[in-house]
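hiii, so i know i said id send this last week but things got crazy w the move. better late than never?? heres the sequnce for the chain we talked about at the cafe, plus the structure i predicted for it. fair warning i was half asleep when i ran it
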Amino acid sequence: MDLELTDKVAVVTGAGKGIGLAVTKALVDEGARVVAGSRTTDSLDDLDGVTAVALDLAAPDGAAQLIQAAIDEHGRLDVLVNNVGAVRIRSEGFFGTSDEEFEWAMEMNFFIALRATRAALTVMVEQETGAIVNVASVNAFFQPDAGTIDYGAAKAALLNLSKSLAQEFGPRGIHVNCVSPGPVGTDLWLGEHGVAATVAATTGVDADTAREQIIAGIGGFATGRFTTPEEVATLITLLASERTGNVTGANYVIDGGLIKTT
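okay and structure toks below
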């Protein structure tokens, strides 16, 4: 299927690794020109069709700088993928999670996307076309324990914002959707300082055991495995296309069957 993304201009945040890198490659494979924002750009510098921008998206003007880089380079903006995000396991639960830690989670998982979206919509409204895909999480609505209490709250805010924007800007030719992954085989889950390693250090088991215990504790996967970044990227790329232009305000779950309720 031709997704009609050839020569479309896309911005991807958090593009240097994991889901963001997979999305960047998927969009390029479909013919898009990608402006990819990341703290480090080593993984992006040699990719054809990609303009890598090294910057701190958590800085107050970081997101706007990235959007402006796309406009300066290509003169338009067709797609925004708000992928950047981060989680820290809160082993002490609600009482052990300070205001400052909630603020950090909101900054990384909500406010960066909010600022990027505000800058992007300014351009898309003038064009009367555009697609925004926000990477939320199953933690936005499936919260089995307090270990990700601030992360879940921030992703829920992003999901709510997306639905609101879909209603406001749908008449302007802009569709806004979310993708909510469950556990994905990235550094966030499996890296040296990822979820499994953090829980392992807290509970005194090895990382593999911690991962198995976490997955069992939240009900397990129907597929028996983690989602790959490339699988998430495929779904995001489809939603970035005008072939799905009348899909808006939706949230697509990709979690290997973790969520078992409708």
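btw The first helix runs from residue 18 to 29. thought thatd interest u
miss u guys!!
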